[in-house]
Design a protein that fits this description.
Blueprint: E1 5-10, H1 16-32, E2 38-42, H2 50-59, E3 64-69, H3 76-92, E4 97-100, H4 108-120, E5 131-137, H5 143-157, E6 163-168, H6 176-185, E7 190-195, H7 202-210, E8 216-217, H8 225-239
Parallel strand pairs: 1-2, 1-3, 3-4, 5-6, 5-7, 7-8
Length: about 250
Amino acid sequence: MSAPVLLVIAHGSRDPRHAATVHALTTRVRSLRPGLRVETGFLDFNAPSVPRVLERLAAQGAGDVIALPLLLTRAFHAKSDIPTVLHEARARLPRMRIRQAAVLGPSPLLNSALERRLYEAGVRPGDRGSTGLVLASAGSTDPEAIAVIAEIARELRHTGWCAVRPAFASASLPRTEDAVRTLRAEGVRRVAVAPYVIAPGRLPDRIAAGAAGADVRAEVLGASPELARLLLTRYDEARVPRARPASLSA
């Protein structure tokens, strides 16, 4: 039997850098696992749409698809938009098996990708003890997503940074510039901002603008090797789910 198709579902953006980054990432995924068919579909703004990709795959005889949300947290798109799109596709394409994989985060691989971008921006391992870090995400109204970002910030604090503060580009507070000012007010002399976002766009640009007062600003996670490996990890987890332990009463 052939392996299920990996369908990476991205949000989409009017900013052309977004789609270019997504395609660069899926290209890297293909290079890590030659022979695996990897497709990309977008929820909005960009083509092809998720339904169009699934219809094309069905017409070509693909019978098994793992849909992987290119999302860092379980917020609205993972809980509502994507399940709705996939549910409608299953109704139209009853012969196709469509499974939704878990979102990407949290994961140690994401933390490693974040560190890679910080080191590329000029931070070195020995700098952590004197550097405060702002973990800047896109933001969400979903409490679960906000809690995940806060927990990641707490975990990073234990990896040597003198302080770590979460920040958000929209929907939640504080903003990136507020977190930078807070660290300065606490006496942190060197501040780094790390965007916890995958691709460039309007909200990452807002993060960059808010990082103007920082000493170091890392780039978005982008098509990093760690992120490509994580996509394959989530694909494999969805393909072969872990067996649940038998009930004691069974």
